[in-house]
């Protein structure tokens, strides 16, 4: 199993970013996928989850209405669209798979600052 995040960077408050997580090594279309984040000095926290077919999503209250998860099962990729970004969204963002075992990508850094 391999999960590779990309798309992070520096963005001003109020801006947008779209993160991608490219997956391989398992049947992607059978697996729910999640995004997590970890800010410096804080515990890793759940951001949201999308079901295997993209028909259902759930989000943490802190990002609800601003973030959206989608997936492309033809290309084994899950996305995290982040809008109206705030400085408190600054963190390393990870995608996560649970398939009997837990699998994590290496993360992509998002920094929200003016």
Please tell me about this protein's structure:
The chain is an all-beta fold and 114 residues long. The strands form two sheets. Strands 2, 4, 5, 6, 9, 10 and 11 form a seven-stranded mixed β-sheet that branches. A four-stranded antiparallel β-sheet has the order 1-3-8-7, with no helix packed on it. The protein starts with a strand and ends with a strand.
- Choose one word for the global shape: globular
Overall pLDDT metric: 97
What is the end-to-end distance?
Answer: 37 Å
Element string (H = helix, E = strand): EEEEEEEEEEE
**Unreliable stretches, pLDDT < 50, 5 or more residues?**
none
What's the Cα radius of gyration? 13 Å
Number of strand segments: 11
Q: Could you give a short account of the major beta sheet?
A: 7 strands, mixed
SS field, number of helical segments? 0
> How much helical structure, as a percent, in the residues?
under 10%
Percentage beta strand: over 45%
Structural class determined from secondary elements: mainly beta
Topology:
Elements (H helix, E strand, L loop, with lengths): L1 E5 L2 E3 L5 E8 L8 E6 L6 E6 L6 E3 L7 E6 L4 E6 L8 E9 L1 E4 L3 E5 L2
Parallel strand pairs: 2-11
Antiparallel strand pairs: 1-3, 3-8, 4-5, 4-9, 5-6, 7-8, 9-10, 9-11
Brief digest:
This protein has 114 residues and is mainly beta. The chain contains no helices and 11 strands.
Descriptors for this entry?
mainly beta; 114 residues; seven-stranded mixed β-sheet; globular; 11 strands; four-stranded antiparallel β-sheet
